Amino acid sequence: xxxxxxxxxxxxxxxxxxxxxxxxxxxxxxxxxxxxxxxxxxxxxxxxxxxxxxxxxxxxxxxxxxxxxxxxxxxxxxxxxxxxxxxxxxxxxxxxxxxxxxxxxxxxxxxxxxxxxxxxxxxxxxxxxxxxxxxxxxxxxxxxxxxxxxxxxxxxxxxxxxxxxxxxxxxxxxxxxxxxxxxxxxxxxxxxxxxxxxxxxxxxxxxxxxxxxxxxxxxxxxxxxxxxxxxxxxxxxxxxxx
Amino acid sequence: xxxxxxxxxxxxxxxxxxxxxxxxxxxxxxxxxxxxxxxxxxxxxxxxxxxxxxxxxxxxxxxxxxxxxxxxxxxxxxxxxxxxxxxxxxxxxxxxxxxxxxxxxxxxxxxxxxxxxxxxxxxxxxxxxxxxxxxxxxxxxxxxxxxxxxxxxxxxxxxxxxxxxxxxxxxxxxxxxxxxxxxxxxxxxxxxxxxxxxxxxxxxxxxxxxxxxxxxxxxxxxxxxxxxxxxxxxxxxxxxxxxxxxxx
Lengths: 242, 248
Fold this sequence. Notes:
The complex is a heterodimer. Chain A is mainly α. Chain A is built from nine helices and no strands. Chain B has a six-stranded mixed β-sheet with strand order 6-7-8-3-9-10, sandwiched between helices. Chain B contains ten helices and ten strands. In chain B, a hairpin with a 2-residue loop joins strand 1 and strand 2 (about 15-25). Chains A and B meet through helix 5 of A and helix 2 and helix 3 of B. Chain B: This is Phospholipid/cholesterol/gamma-HCH transport system ATP-binding protein. Chain B: It holds the Pfam family ABC_tran.
C-alpha cells in the first residue's frame, strides 16, 4: 500500500511547480520521437505477423460448409481492433518503452543527474517524466491504429498468398458487420495503457537506489508491473465500455 | 558566508550526522575532510537541500534555507553551483548544452547572451575546443571541468564540490584544485569542498573541518593541521608511510 501511495504522490509532483512551456514543448517532441517514432519498426513487425497468424489459424479452425469463408476476415478484423492491436502492441511497448524509461531514469538517478536538476531548483519529476507520460498517451494510440491496419493487411497477405481465402472474400469480410464504436474503444485503450506504462516505468526508474544492478532490477520491475497493470486495465475497460 | 547550526541526520535509526555546527567563509576554500562513511557527503547534501536534516538549520548570508518561503529558497538555489563527484553531466547533451542548461532553464537571456556566457565559462576551464563533444567522448578530468563550468555559469555565490579529484591522476587533480581555488578567489565565492585527498588539503585548504563518525572533531587552518594532537586526525593525515616518516 505504501508503494501505491508513493506512486500517487509521485504523480502529484508531475503537475506541481512546472517549468516554462517552451521547455516542455521541446521535451515533448524529443519524447514523441524516442517513444513513438522509434517503436514503429517493432510494432510493424509484430503486428503484421500476428495478423498473418490470426488469419491462418482462424481459417484452420473454421472448416465448415455452413460458415462463409469471409468470416475469417471478420474475425481477424475484430480480434485486431478489439484486442490484438491495442493490448498486444502495448504489452510489446511495455517491454521496449518501459524498460527504456526505467533504465534511463535509473541511470540518471545513480549518476546524480537528477540531483543536479534538483539543486538547480528544477522540478526533476515534472521536467523528466511529464513529457514521457504525455508522449506515450499521444503516440500509443497512433501506433495502435498503425498496428491494426498492418495486422489486417498481414491477414490479407497471408490469407490470399496461401489460398485459404480469396481477395474478394477477405475484403467483404473485413467490411461485414462493422461496428464503428470498436474503433473508439481501440483508441481509448492505448491512451490509458500509455499513461500506465510511462508513469509506472518512470516511477520505478526515478526511485532507483544503488548501482547498475539496481538499474537492471528497476527495469525488470517496470516491465513486469506495466504488463500486469495493462492486463488489469484491459479487463476493466472491456467491462466498462463494451 | 554559510552557517551550519546543529545539523543532525539519522538513516534507519543510525546517526549519520551528530549535531554539526560550522561556519564557511566567503572567498575562501573551505574543506571538509574525513575518511569514507564519516558523513561528509550527507552533510553536503543537507546543505544543498538534497537531504532534509532531522534537526538544525543552514543559513546562507543569514537566510535560513529550511525555514523560508519558496521564493527565498529558490533564489538561494540559484546562487548555488554544485560539482558532483562524477560530474553529473547530462548524457544526451553536448558539453556546450550541458553548460548552457541552467541558463536555458532559469533565465530569460537571449541566445547571444547565453552563447557568450557559455563560451566564457568553457574558456575559463580550458575546454572551448570540446564544446561540441558528448560527455561519453571526454575524459574524467574533462568531465569535472565541464561540471565546474556548469556550476559557475550562473555566477554562483556558493560553490560546492563533492570529491572533485576522485578518480583523477595526481596532475589532473592538482589542476582541478587550482582551478577551483582561482575561481573562488576571483569571484569571491564561498566554496566548500568535500575531499579525502591530502594534496588538496595541503594545497588549497584555507579552512579545514575534520569529520569523524558523523561529528566534527577538528577545525582550523591548513598550517595548523600538521601539528594536530587529535589521534583520529593524525591517523587520517599520516596513513601514508611516506607522510608518517615526514611527521613532525
